[in-house]
Amino acid sequence: MRKLIAAVLLLSNSALLTAQKTMKVPATYKPTKSEMYHKGWIDFNKNGVMDVYEDPAATVDARVEDLLKQMTLDEKTCQMVTLYGYKRVLKDALPTPEWKQMLWKDGIGAIDEHLNGFQQWGLPPSDNENVWPASRHAWALNEVQRFFVEETRLGIPVDFTNEGIRGVESYKATNFPTQLGLGHTWNRALIHKVGLITGREARMLGYTNVYAPILDVGRDQRWGRYEEVYGESPYLVAELGIEMVRGLQQHVAATGKHFAAYSNNKGAREGMARVDPQTSPHEVENIHIYPFRRVIKEAGLLGVMSSYNDYDGIPIQGSYYWLTTRLRDEMGFRGYVVSDSDAVEYLYTKHGTAKDMKEAVRQSVEAGLNVRCTFRSPDSFVLPLRELVKEGGLDEETVNDRVRDILRVKFLIGLFDAPYQTDLAGADKEVEKEENEAVALQASRESVVLLKNENSTLPLNINTVKKIAVCGPNADEDGYALTHYGPLAVEVTTVLKGIQDKVNGKAEVLYTKGCDLVDANWPESEIIDYPLTPDEQAEINKAVENARRADVAVVVLGGGQRTCGENKSRSSLDLPGRQLQLLQAVQATGKPVVLILINGRPLSVNWADKYVPAILEAWYPGSKGGVALADILFGDYNPGGKLTVTFPKTVGQIPFNFPCKPASQIDGGKNAGPDGNMSRINGALYPFGYGLSYTTFEYSNLEITPKVITPNEKATVRLKVTNTGKYAGDEVVQLYTRDVLSSVTTYEKNLAGFERIHLEPGETKEVTFILDRKHLELLDADMKRVVEPGDFAIMAGASSEDIRLNGLLTVEDYQTRTQAIESRKSASRVSASTNPESTGNVLDGKINTAWQGNKGDYITFALKNGSKTDKVSIAFTRDNNLPAHFEIQLSGGGGQFLTVYSGTVSEYGKLVSYSFKGTTASDLRIVLNDDRVGVAEVKLE
């Protein structure tokens, strides 16, 4: 794969260099019809006056309505479709005279992936002269935009959309780890930077809308698209998604995907339509809807991609409930919904809920779809849409509503004020600039997780290791960094190259591949044990011989484009092909072995965990992956990533993920063998949140303030972390909560906070978390989000299973909390001759709590200044219920009390009023004249 791509890039670069000579790209872009372009505004409809929609000073809503009322049905319907770019659907890189006869003569909603270099799956990047350099690419998109601004009646600019989950998809751009790797950084600030860079590079290249982030939550590790999720925790997905969107939307619109419940398909079987995820309504809300709800509300997400699965028999694409009631009415989404691929077509080709395309169009638009986006001619959607409106099958006002959303986004991202990317020279300076590449390297380093490090095998000492054996199908592979949905043709440092560069002149590197990623019979070889072929055995023997000659062996295994990705779910989580045999053979040499995993999903590396001393999980670490891993191997960087996914020991444990319900992961017996009671493998290989370091960290001083709150109050959790080892390093401090007693079953642990901190040896830092309503809510039996009064366990630690500190937070309802506060305030005005700790019981409103004393004891109440009192209500208690004598005394100050009432208690357990001659007093005292008498409640009048 690597050699094929290298050859292709050589040819592509040659073609591009030739093309660059044919045209000199100007430093700035200027459109040709100068009469349209005025200072401060553009005459889009060419009528010579500034219409409201052309006025930058007008409100967005006013501009939308003014433009909408000028549009014909043909122009409206053209806004509701995407035209896929060059060599996808559009055959032209630049406008041609024929465009004036095409459907898009009346405008188009979006053009997707135009000139981004991607042609089709399995094909090399496009060699069109307008793909690269960045300045030429921006110029070309401007030329396409100019057609829509200058040559259509109303001049509505097009929204240039593109992928961007690991950097903007372009011939070249800053190349980050795939989204799963980014999730393992647990670094909000870093993800924000990734969003900023991706959005800024996209805009400089001419794009205005990026299809990112993916807000799906991982549930089944066999799923092919696990490589694209941030992790299994909806809270973590939301937190990182918010930062990604905030970064992106400083420059472009962000479109989150895939809405809704897309990642929970049955048994990881996709069938293109991902039919009917098997999950309950509560699970859908708590896991899958949670990130979308928060990212929309907290980050103002401008785009949502509707998924093509159904849920509970209802296709999402045709569901008014999901696309309108939930998404718009409840979550407040104000952007536009774009369909994922053939989601509209699937209503009749897969789901069977529409009889034909026309009916599928009607259902989708009525449900809430704004823009159909798939690899088909836009006519296939627009023409039946127009027919429906003309025939009365679809109300034109519904079309108006959908177009309003599209236009709103175009106004919000500035397309009507600055439709062109005019700084062409700036594009060459911005894309892949040094500062961006430094962030990409940081992301690659922070994404790596140290899974095992027995006897401090790592880091390697570059001064004593003189020969290093490197093998494995991913050792000299770079294809993982050059897949779809990101930059396509950047320079990639492989693990082998990274090691060679690191030890250059200091150690010898012995390399052989060892085995291919998969064998000739894969995936059938996962269920049938085929013998090694002579060629396979010979290549493993080469790796063994290198290992015997070396001081240490680095084996680089895992997955790749053949084993993971869209529509590439697996039936096993074991190492594919001959990889395990290679690892076992190298390990058998007795030399120290370091296993590096490069893959897009958790793998059940049970044998490696038991026998290999050091294991690094690198996911797909981006173009800088080889540099990052070499830095980690030799101690120039201390790995600090933590797992955002669960590693099952076998697919037989699936579903096995975080968060989980209490006791749901507890299995049968624990004694193995013929005389034991164990029937299945228990526990995770590596749990959520797990990750090691070259140093050690100590947690201390957990404080929760206040310890009691109402549902809408906040609590602060503080703790200290100390680096107790010899290396500087990062620790991901994780905070978990558990609702101790609830009306419905809740998760055993909920991730409620995390911070990645850097500590020098011996350094201590205080970490602060704020808990508010969103951290304590549950979805009750009526599907309402509530915070139920009660106790919440607060847990802080290094993983979901490595809890270092525990505390308790109590939530009281507002009324109870208010009464308690008032009681404490009142209690501060109460004193007693004995048992002073119980004085608060007389003002708490509860008859079953009391202050108790014996003969001669008294309890005193400070009255408000200048109070004149002539009555008090008292509830007494006495175990034997015999009559008890008491006195009521008043004091005018100076410590002298005078008796104003003497009496006998004849009725216990209820408030009884006692009247006396009133006078101005500062204190009231109740004196007991018998033993073992309690005062349960006092009401001063």
UniProtKB/TrEMBL annotation:
Leader sequence residues: 1-19
GO MF annotation: an example: beta-glucosidase activity
Record region (Disordered): 822-846
A Pfam family of this chain: Glyco_hydro_3_C
One GO BP annotation of this record: arabinan catabolic process
Biased composition (Polar residues): 828-841
Keywords annotated in UniProt: Hydrolase, Signal
Record-annotated Fibronectin type III-like domain positions: 731-800
UniProt similarity note: Belongs to the glycosyl hydrolase 3 family.
Record protein name field: Glycosyl hydrolase family 3 protein
Taxonomic source organism: Bacteroides fluxus YIT 12057
